[in-house]
Amino acid sequence: MPEVFKAENVKGESEEIKKLLRESFSRSSFGSCVPRPHRFRFESQQDDETVLVLGRRHLVTNLGWIAMLCFASVIPFVWGEFPFLQALDGNTLISFSMLWYMGLIFFGIQSFLMWFYNVYIITNERLVDVDFVGLLSKTVNVAQISRIEDVNYTQKGILASFFNYGDVIIQTASEQRTPDTAGEMSAFTFEAVAFPDKVAGIISQLTEEAEKPWK
Fold this sequence. Notes:
Blueprint: E1 5-6, H1 15-21, E2 33-35, E3 41-42, E4 51-56, H2 63-73, H3 90-117, E5 119-123, E6 126-133, E7 137-144, E8 148-154, H4 158-163, E9 165-173, E10 185-194, H5 196-211
Antiparallel strand pairs: 1-3, 2-4, 4-5, 5-6, 6-7, 8-9, 9-10
């Protein structure tokens, strides 16, 4: 797995941001939304840049692959019900079962790592979205706070409403503008994040502070 995070202490933030971060976010390193993560630093972080929130997809979004893993784990117990496997001897079935479970273990580890390392990071200067593609490559999207135009969030479905997660959609000013695209904005989305209302509120507050004139 490529290195993304390094240990480091974080700096302070404005009183308004501190107030927002006092809300009931998770404090666990395995949490879906961790405010002011302890001794955390990502690889491109600047010396004067403070990490305010570290987040990932809500834990409940893992239920799909976990359920599939549980179902697949019982299949070797019914090998005898498959006609094309009935002709195989016992040793061959045992070997086949071992390969099956090795594949399931690899699938489970990969799925967990994809959830754990696909993160979004909110700092006092920018938003960072880290997406791993497989275990050896990643895509990092960055949006400067000063370029954010609008922030909103959506919650769709019973699970999203019950467990309080949703998509936070950030509209950012286009990096390159032409006469035909002068009014267009590009979307920057954090998917299935916990506490989407609080995350959107923090980003909105950062945007307001970035727009204030220097005193």
